[in-house]
TrEMBL record:
GO MF term (any one): transferase activity
InterPro entries linked: Glutathione-S-Trfase_C_sf (IPR036282), Glutathione_S-Trfase_N (IPR004045), GST_Omega/HSP26 (IPR050983), Thioredoxin-like_sf (IPR036249)
UniProt entry keywords in alphabetical sequence: Transferase
Family annotation (Pfam families): GST_C_2 (PF13410), GST_N_2 (PF13409)
GO cellular component: cytoplasm
Protein name in UniProt: Glutathione S-transferase
Amino acid sequence: MRLYHSPTSPYVRKVMVLLHETGLLPQVTLVTGSGSPIDPGTAPLEANPLGKVPALERPDGPALYDSRVICRYLDDLAQAGLYGTGPALWDRLTIEATADGILDAALLMVYEWRLRPEQHRYDPWVEGQWAKVDRALDTLESRWMAELRGPLDAGQIAVACALGYVDFRHDARGWRDTRPHLAAWYGEFAKRPSMIETQPA
């Protein structure tokens, strides 16, 4: 398998953490590829027409893209059970969607400041994106801590990578200040070798 990746992409990090946790990493060749919404750069357009990473070329079908799709595929390949079945499956998918929503909003904030000319930047729009992150973090703190404290699953991986990205790009926002349980959980989860090996620099 070939994984198109960027070392600072939080969506790629989700896939990389799962590869480490399932032992599948030796089966994957990493290929650098990245771009932006206004310049595809070296993004793998043949593997993913949307011009985004991660994209996974596999031997048994067309390339897969979107981190959620790739993670489900790799979990199935490894028979790791990180998504579970029945009610647990829907909880984990919801947690993963919450984490990815945090990433989507946090990344749009970065794009606003990096890609939009200064005279066209719109602070209320940036704050609206942070409000999404804020609400999602509150929901993790109030609703999902029991699931996050359970045995390793895909939802935990997604949340940890989302929190890592918020630290990486928006640390000044101080997300830990009002979420002591989530902060304590992440402090422990971040010590996992899979998280340390995939930490962006």
